[in-house]
Predict the 3D structure of the following.
Amino acid sequence: MTNVVAEPVAPMSIASVERDSGLPKDTLRVWERRYGFPNPLRDKQDERLYPADQVTTLRLLRRLIVAGHRPGKIVGLPDDQLKKLLEKVGGPDDQPTAYEAEPVLGLLRSHDAVGLRNHLNAIVLRSGLGAFASVTGPRLVEAVGSAWARGDLEIHQEHFFTEQFTTVLRSSISAAEGAGLPRVRPRVLFGTFPQEPHALGLMMAEAMFTLEGCLGISLGVQTPIPEIAAAARAHKADILALSFSSIVPAAQATTGLAELRNLVPGTIEIWAGGACPGLRPMPGVYVLRGLASIGPAIEAWRSRTNFTE
Ligand code: B12
């Protein structure tokens, strides 16, 4: 038998850790200051370098945060405790779990509306809304989209899935809103620009904001920019959360964001997210790359606005 000796893994820069863990650089720095973890080494230029074991822990933390855990309660816990918590939220690793795509595709092929709705609801109940919105839901949507692209599903089956999925996610968000958690600021208005018909990513983001206790108001998709601004003022929004998929050209996103920025008072922050590769931050416009960044971003908002409940 050959003994395999593992190569030592080189420490990673903050940019690589951001890419690897999905945790934004700002979050890594805030945690370091606030909780003493991560605790990176420094290179000759005094840049942060994260040892492999810390990167492993950060991956676990990210997955717990997208499942709804608060950084203040979990950053600093040893890995074995983090893994125990992860077992409760849907599987010990990043591999697809039992409740993934195949049963859903089967229900779609047999046009079983009640079965599909029950199945999706059961996933939410088993894994919790956070894990559904951030892990299982995106995987299912992706799987159904790919099955349609390969010709394994008809267009009507894909549309039917989207409707069922939307119903389950929307009713789970409403249930979470009514579950007795305190609803506090920031007050967040959700929407998309007129060119953007994709609604599911936005709704998944809304679920995460809801789990953070935010007050949410959704305009759904495809709202004219001046109307988004009017709604933001009417609802006294603190944050406008907008979703941009990969169909939106970068220039269109940038122009629209600049227009919206001019139409709303500076006290209202604009947070843009989604798969659009051309999204760029600008003054008063923050770019959030994934759902994992929502919790830390809200925490930062609450601390920079001196918000108290
Ligand atoms: C469902 C779907 C539709 C549905 C949408 C229904 C609905 N109610 O949402 C409909 C049928 C309307 C649709 C239409 C189109 N679609 Co479409 N659609 C999809 C599909 C299958 C799923 C999209 C989706 O919901 N993804 C799942 C979510 C979870 O991903 P996401 O949006 O990126 O969101 C995640 C993150 O980005 C983030 N996030 C998103 N928003 C926000 C916001 C904030 C604030 C934060 C923090 C995070 C965040 O969180 C989410 C969870 O991780 C994808 C294929 C796929 N595999 O993704 C194609 C896809 C996106 N569509 C595509 C296209 C081309 C179109 C059309 C242009 C097709 C056409 N020729 O007509 C039209 C749009 C026409 C128009 N302009 O009106 C392409 C885009 C390719 C490209 N790069 O250009 C894709 C990738 C399919 C493909 N492979 O070709 N589509």
About this structure: The first helix runs from residue 14 to 21. The longest strand covers residues 184-191. The mean pLDDT is 87.
